[in-house]
Design goal:
elongated, alpha+beta, 434 residues, 5-stranded mixed β-barrel, 12 helices
């Protein structure tokens, strides 16, 4: 609609044509109001019944909520209207009528279960607070890209259909690829390492990953967005610096550019940007501090993975984002390099929000012989990964990187209860449609 005016741009004295959804109708007898909503806000349409064409009044007041309408008329100042202006309509067209029986209430006056909302995402996104989540998501991803570029990174795109899994195991979605078995990629890990080994050196990718994990929790998905970094001539400390910079940049961008969205979510008074550097705790120190909280039934010992309740106890103790470094080698993937002076310790790290893990990363094993040994130690056949391992014979520099869970970042920034709220059309064990 070339002649369309967004509701937020309608000024007193204009002759405007607005188009959007019928948010509400208020009939007060001799006068009535239709509240029209578009992506920029709402505007009041005034019907003075005795002074207007009967057919125009009947059409405007007879339309069902959430129908799409187009209204043309004079914009007038009205301090009592929701936005301080209103339109007296000269014409009103019902572009697309809506069924009066809606599966959920986009006005938000009647709550709906999350499953109902996800089944009817188009309607759900008409709510200010839901739209705000995805406007903020967009800003977070924009800020992440900008932060990576400030770290001299090049954006790349890696394959999502692969012949072998990044980490092996059963967490793979198999597919048929022209008669051959293939898989949906768990991670861009191996490919981003190969690019970091080229003259490009520093790369990032923001894209989907697929994990056939049978989790059914508020913080797991089977299709997620991974925010990945890999840098040549970087060690684990450099990678942690980048991870901290990207996460902080995301918070700063939301604070600076999303005030209206934060207000829609009721976060305008409580939202805070992380202050200062994130503490870096060794794995050994982490389990000691968790044990000291007394929150676990059994004390953790060296080599244990951290249970969810342990992560929460440590997060409460630290009180903000923090890193866990120097993980035991045996519980990190084959491509994570061990410390030269202690093979029991890896260079792997995790970046934690007080409520959950956000990032897993570390320095990578760039030495061919040690890389092959790592495959064998984890029961993987190096020959199945020949496309990857052979490149380590041709001058692979030291490099490090990480993967950051995009939805988890959004979830923790906004304090969402369920990770599915941060995804337009989530995929989990129970949900393959819409």
């Amino acid at each position: 609609m070339q002649d369309r005016t967004y509701t937020a741009d309608a000024e007193p004295g204009d002759d405007a044509t607005v188009a959007g959804w019928v948010h509400e109708i208020r009939d007060l007898g001799g006068i009535a109001f239709l509240i029209l909503r578009d992506t920029t806000g709402k505007i009041q349409i005034k019907f003075e019944k005795d002074e207007m064409d009967d057919e125009l009044v009947e059409t405007g007041l007879g339309v069902s909520r959430e129908s799409v309408v187009k209204v043309s008329g004079a914009v007038e100042e009205e301090p009592r209207a929701p936005t301080g202006v209103e339109i007296t309509p000269e014409s009103l067209e019902v572009v697309a009528p809506a069924d009066p029986e809606l599966p959920l209430d986009p006005s938000g006056k009647v709550d709906a279960e999350l499953s109902t909302r996800l089944d009817n995402r188009t309607l759900d996104l008409r709510k200010d607070e839901v739209q705000a989540i995805f406007e903020i998501r967009s800003e977070i991803l924009r800020a992440a890209r900008e932060a990576f570029r400030e770290f001299r990174c090049t954006e790349i795109t890696t394959p999502k259909i692969v012949a072998t899994g990044t980490e092996g195991g059963t967490e793979l979605f198999p597919i048929t690829y022209f008669g051959e078995e293939a898989f949906m990629n768990q991670s861009p890990q191996l490919f981003k390492q190969l690019i970091a080994g080229s003259n490009v050196e520093r790369v990032f990718e923001i894209g989907p990953i697929f994990r056939a994990e049978e989790h059914n929790t508020p913080r797991h998905l089977n299709e997620a967005t991974s925010i990945d970094f890999e840098g040549a001539f970087c060690d684990e400390h450099d990678a942690m610096d980048v991870a901290e910079g990207v996460v902080t940049a995301a918070y700063e961008a939301v604070a600076e550019n999303c005030s209206e969205e934060l207000e829609a979510l009721g976060l305008e008074e409580t939202f805070e940007v992380p202050d200062g550097e994130f503490p870096r705790l060794s794995y050994e120190e982490a389990i000691e501090r968790i044990n000291a909280t007394g929150e676990l039934d059994e004390q953790l010992v060296w080599g244990d993975d951290l249970p969810t309740e342990g992560e929460k106890a440590l997060g409460d103790d630290v009180g903000g984002h923090y890193f866990i470094t120097d993980w035991p080698s045996e519980i990190k993937p084959f491509y994570i390099q061990d410390h030269d002076d202690d093979e029991q310790l890896s260079t792997g790290f995790d970046l934690m929000h007080p409520s959950m893990e956000l990032v897993s990363g570390g320095q990578r094993e760039h030495r061919y012989e040690q890389l092959i040994e790592g495959f064998e130690q984890q029961g993987l056949d190096p020959e199945q990964f020949d496309y990857y391992t052979k490149m380590f014979k041709y001058g692979m520099p030291p490099h490090a990187g990480f993967g950051l869970g995009g939805e988890r970042l959004i979830m923790t920034i906004l304090g969402l209860d369920n990770i599915r709220e941060a995804v337009l059309f989530p995929r989990d064990r129970q949900r393959l449609s819409p």
